[in-house]
Design goal:
With 170 residues, the protein is mainly alpha-helical. The chain has helices at 2-17, 50-53, 56-73, 78-81, 88-104, 116-120, 127-143, 148-159, 162-165. It has a domain at 50-165: Orthogonal Bundle (Globin-like), CATH 1.10.490.10.
């Protein structure tokens, strides 16, 4: 212990004899927050319109083809769609439905058909028929692997038309 004390005394005398001022041991530097500015993250890309997410004209046409097959095979809707047959009337129906879906989902189309009220007034469509129609549409969306979110959005567009289409209560 004497040796250590002697070393400390000699070191102090040496520093004092040289005229140097002892420097305290370095302390940890203070942390200063640095403003790094905005992060280098690109803003999220805008969500494309539903029409694009459905596959554009080809995707919508495929949905309509599947849907019309479902409707024509549905015994609940057989009477309501019997007039379409499989010829020109069915092609016209598909064309107008394609225009309507394109416009309603943000495509670059314009629906040129009758209003929903005018087109359906004489058909006396019931709530049950509308519900069957909607089920067949949902089935077509599932068959074409439309995402649940996109299907919900599209069915929402359809449901907004219900009051214009249903003209007779069961």
């Amino acid at each position: 212990m004497r040796g250590a004390a002697l070393v400390l005394l000699l070191a102090t005398a040496f520093v004092a004899g040289c005229g140097a001022v002892p420097v305290p041991p370095p302390s940890a530097p203070e942390e200063v927050p640095i403003d790094a500015g905005e992060p280098d993250v690109a803003p999220p890309a805008p969500i494309p319109p539903l029409y694009t997410r459905l596959g554009g004209s080809g995707g919508v046409a495929a949905i309509i083809d599947s849907f019309t097959e479902n409707v024509l095979a549905d015994r609940r809707l057989k009477h309501a769609f019997a007039r379409l047959g499989r010829g020109a009337k069915l092609a016209h129906f598909k064309s107008k439905l394609g225009e309507q879906l394109c416009e309603a989902t943000g495509g670059d189309c314009h629906y040129s058909g009758k209003t929903m009220s005018d087109a359906h007034a004489s058909l006396k469509i019931t709530d049950a028929q509308f519900d069957a129609f909607e089920e067949d549409f949902r089935l077509a969306l599932e068959e074409k692997q439309v995402s649940a979110e996109d299907a919900k959005e599209l069915i929402g567009e359809l449901e907004m038309l219900k009051d214009q289409i249903v003209h007779q209560q069961p």
